[in-house]
Protein backbone atom coordinates (compact mmCIF):
# COMPACT_ATOMS: atom_id res chain seq x y z
CA UNK A 1 0.00 0.00 0.00
CA UNK A 2 1.39 3.42 -0.95
CA UNK A 3 2.46 5.67 1.90
CA UNK A 4 1.01 9.18 2.14
CA UNK A 5 3.44 11.71 0.66
CA UNK A 6 2.75 14.41 3.25
CA UNK A 7 4.66 13.46 6.38
CA UNK A 8 5.96 15.47 9.35
CA UNK A 9 9.47 16.79 8.85
CA UNK A 10 12.19 18.36 10.97
CA UNK A 11 12.17 21.54 8.84
CA UNK A 12 11.86 24.84 10.69
CA UNK A 13 8.43 26.48 10.70
CA UNK A 14 10.08 29.86 11.33
CA UNK A 15 12.40 29.43 8.34
CA UNK A 16 9.47 28.44 6.14
CA UNK A 17 7.36 31.42 7.22
CA UNK A 18 10.31 33.79 6.75
CA UNK A 19 10.04 33.06 3.03
CA UNK A 20 6.37 34.13 2.85
CA UNK A 21 5.54 37.66 1.63
CA UNK A 22 4.81 40.27 4.31
CA UNK A 23 0.98 40.42 4.14
CA UNK A 24 0.53 36.66 3.90
CA UNK A 25 3.20 36.19 6.56
CA UNK A 26 1.24 38.33 8.99
CA UNK A 27 -1.84 36.18 8.39
CA UNK A 28 0.29 33.06 8.90
CA UNK A 29 1.53 34.34 12.27
CA UNK A 30 -2.08 34.95 13.32
CA UNK A 31 -3.02 31.39 12.28
CA UNK A 32 0.06 30.07 14.07
CA UNK A 33 -1.14 31.62 17.34
CA UNK A 34 -4.77 30.56 16.82
CA UNK A 35 -4.01 26.95 15.95
CA UNK A 36 -1.34 26.55 18.64
CA UNK A 37 -3.84 27.77 21.21
CA UNK A 38 -6.65 25.56 19.86
CA UNK A 39 -4.56 22.38 19.89
CA UNK A 40 -2.14 23.04 22.73
CA UNK A 41 0.52 21.76 20.32
CA UNK A 42 3.54 23.42 18.73
CA UNK A 43 3.59 23.90 14.95
CA UNK A 44 5.41 21.34 12.83
CA UNK A 45 6.14 21.24 9.12
CA UNK A 46 4.27 18.53 7.22
CA UNK A 47 5.94 18.17 3.87
CA UNK A 48 7.55 21.25 2.37
CA UNK A 49 4.64 23.71 2.69
CA UNK A 50 2.05 22.76 5.35
CA UNK A 51 2.22 23.89 8.97
CA UNK A 52 0.35 21.34 11.08
CA UNK A 53 -0.57 21.12 14.75
CA UNK A 54 -0.94 17.92 16.75
CA UNK A 55 -1.74 14.62 15.08
CA UNK A 56 -4.19 11.77 15.06
CA UNK A 57 -4.23 8.26 13.64
CA UNK A 58 -6.87 7.33 11.06
CA UNK A 59 -7.87 4.02 9.58
CA UNK A 60 -10.24 3.45 6.68
CA UNK A 61 -12.48 0.42 6.23
CA UNK A 62 -10.09 -0.65 3.47
CA UNK A 63 -7.37 -1.08 6.09
CA UNK A 64 -5.36 1.92 4.92
CA UNK A 65 -4.15 3.95 7.87
CA UNK A 66 -1.85 6.83 8.66
CA UNK A 67 -1.22 9.93 10.72
CA UNK A 68 -2.45 13.42 9.96
CA UNK A 69 -2.45 16.76 11.78
CA UNK A 70 -5.46 17.99 13.78
CA UNK A 71 -5.47 21.34 12.00
CA UNK A 72 -3.06 23.31 9.89
CA UNK A 73 -2.51 25.82 7.12
CA UNK A 74 -0.48 26.51 4.04
CA UNK A 75 0.19 29.88 2.38
CA UNK A 76 -0.47 28.90 -1.23
CA UNK A 77 0.00 31.25 -4.17
CA UNK A 78 -3.68 32.16 -4.63
CA UNK A 79 -5.11 31.56 -1.14
CA UNK A 80 -4.40 30.65 2.41
CA UNK A 81 -5.40 27.01 2.72
CA UNK A 82 -6.69 26.01 6.15
CA UNK A 83 -7.13 22.35 6.98
CA UNK A 84 -10.25 21.98 9.09
CA UNK A 85 -12.27 18.80 9.46
CA UNK A 86 -16.04 19.04 9.09
CA UNK A 87 -18.54 16.71 10.71
CA UNK A 88 -19.35 18.53 13.93
CA UNK A 89 -22.76 19.99 14.80
CA UNK A 90 -22.09 23.71 14.32
CA UNK A 91 -20.00 23.40 11.14
CA UNK A 92 -22.63 24.63 8.64
CA UNK A 93 -23.70 27.54 10.84
CA UNK A 94 -20.11 28.68 11.37
CA UNK A 95 -19.30 28.40 7.68
CA UNK A 96 -22.33 30.56 6.81
CA UNK A 97 -21.15 33.27 9.21
CA UNK A 98 -17.44 33.08 8.35
CA UNK A 99 -17.21 35.57 5.50
CA UNK A 100 -15.63 35.36 2.07
CA UNK A 101 -14.23 31.85 1.50
CA UNK A 102 -14.46 28.72 -0.60
CA UNK A 103 -14.05 25.08 0.36
CA UNK A 104 -12.68 21.81 -0.89
CA UNK A 105 -12.42 18.43 0.76
CA UNK A 106 -11.30 19.27 4.33
CA UNK A 107 -9.87 22.57 3.03
CA UNK A 108 -11.01 26.10 3.65
CA UNK A 109 -9.63 28.69 1.24
CA UNK A 110 -9.41 32.41 2.07
CA UNK A 111 -7.55 35.15 0.22
CA UNK A 112 -6.66 36.94 3.45
CA UNK A 113 -7.82 36.83 7.04
CA UNK A 114 -9.28 40.33 6.70
CA UNK A 115 -11.99 38.71 4.52
CA UNK A 116 -13.34 36.56 7.36
CA UNK A 117 -14.77 37.04 10.84
CA UNK A 118 -11.88 36.07 13.12
CA UNK A 119 -14.16 35.19 16.04
CA UNK A 120 -16.05 32.76 13.81
CA UNK A 121 -12.78 31.35 12.42
CA UNK A 122 -11.54 30.80 15.97
CA UNK A 123 -14.77 28.97 16.87
CA UNK A 124 -14.46 26.89 13.71
CA UNK A 125 -10.87 25.85 14.40
CA UNK A 126 -11.57 25.07 18.07
CA UNK A 127 -14.71 23.06 17.26
CA UNK A 128 -12.90 21.10 14.54
CA UNK A 129 -9.98 20.28 16.85
CA UNK A 130 -12.33 19.28 19.69
CA UNK A 131 -14.27 17.07 17.28
CA UNK A 132 -11.13 15.32 16.05
CA UNK A 133 -9.80 14.82 19.58
CA UNK A 134 -13.16 13.34 20.66
CA UNK A 135 -13.00 10.86 17.79
CA UNK A 136 -9.76 9.58 19.26
Rounded to the nearest angstrom, the distance between the terminal CA atoms is 24 Å
Unreliable stretches (pLDDT < 50, length at least 5) are none
Structural class call reads: alpha+beta
Number of helices: 4
Gross geometry: globular
What oligomeric state do the depicted chains represent? single chain
The CATH C-level name is Alpha Beta
Strand arrangement within the widest β-sheet reads 1-2-5-6-8-7
**Rg:** 15 Å
Query: How many strands, what sense, and barrel or not for the largest sheet?
Result: 6 strands, antiparallel
Strand content: 15-25%
Mean pLDDT level:
92
CATH fold annotation = Aspartate Aminotransferase, domain 1
- Could you say what the CATH architecture is? Alpha-Beta Complex
Percentage of residues assigned to helices: 25-40%
Order of helices and strands: HHEEEEEEHEEH
Beta strand count: 8
The structural domain count equals: 1
